[in-house]
Amino acid sequence: MTEQMTGRLVLHDVSVRYGDVVAVDAATASAAPGEITAVTGHSGAGKTSLLWAIGGMLDDGRSDGSISLGDKTIGDEATSRSAGAVLIPQGSALAEVLTARDNIAIPLVAAGMSGGEASALADRTLASVGLAEHGGHLAEELSGGQRQRVAVARGLALSSLRLESGSAVLLADEPTSELDHDTRELVVGLLQDIARRGGIVLLATHDPEVAEVAAATWHLEDGRLTATARP
Ligand SMILES: Nc1ncnc2c1ncn2[C@@H]1O[C@H](COP(=O)(O)OP(=O)(O)OP(=O)(O)O)[C@@H](O)[C@H]1O
Ligand SMILES: [Mg+2]
């Protein structure tokens, strides 16, 4: 591992509520740096809600319990961001009228990179997901699977940057749902690279083949989490 180890991500009694709906119900679990943890469960089981709680992306008051990374408490926007939380959102969430390159480079600049470095890293990560020729295309001109790969590339680039400054917690929310078999393997390999460099990778997926690469699984059923390590 090239980057420093950062300690485990630990959740204790984490709940997420939307009014009367309990999306995550007192989840207690931990995930190690250097590993992929699969987050599984049927549609509506609470996967996205759990990832957003860890990323500090929920509206105030929606989550409670405690979340920590090593000796730091996280779980709100500022603390999760400074601990290196990066979301690959379900459904890609690209800015339509920006190019693929700018969809990646602008968040990198916002995270402190210079414009030139950010464009170069954007181009490298686009190439790594098989989109070397698409950097100048507007997001709205891309196919669903290409858009998903841009969102993955953005998450990978930001995670790389976060790793350089200490730690990354990559929250990958169904990042391969629109990809063919070979492209899926490519993306899973890139997520493994982030883990190998010392990142914590949480990978929400409905795909058993994708979940198989994980060292551990957090399975959600109606918001209740059961954690298992790979035998
Ligand atoms: N903004 C919201 N307002 C109200 N209820 C919500 C909101 N977001 C999610 N929910 C509810 O919380 C529960 C968990 O949703 P969540 O999106 O976390 O599930 P998921 O496991 O990610 O599902 P999927 O596999 O379909 O993405 C569901 O019952 C959902 O209807
Ligand atoms: Mg979801």
From TrEMBL:
One of its GO terms (molecular function) is ATP binding. The keyword Nucleotide-binding applies. Keywords: ATP-binding, Nucleotide-binding. The keyword Nucleotide-binding applies. InterPro entries: AAA+_ATPase (IPR003593), ABC_transporter-like_ATP-bd (IPR003439), ABC_transporter-like_CS (IPR017871), ABC_transpr_LolD-like (IPR015854), P-loop_NTPase (IPR027417). GO terms for cellular component: plasma membrane. Pfam families: ABC_tran. Residues 9-231 form the ABC transporter domain. It comes from the Bacteria. Belongs to the ABC transporter superfamily. This is ATP-binding cassette domain-containing protein.
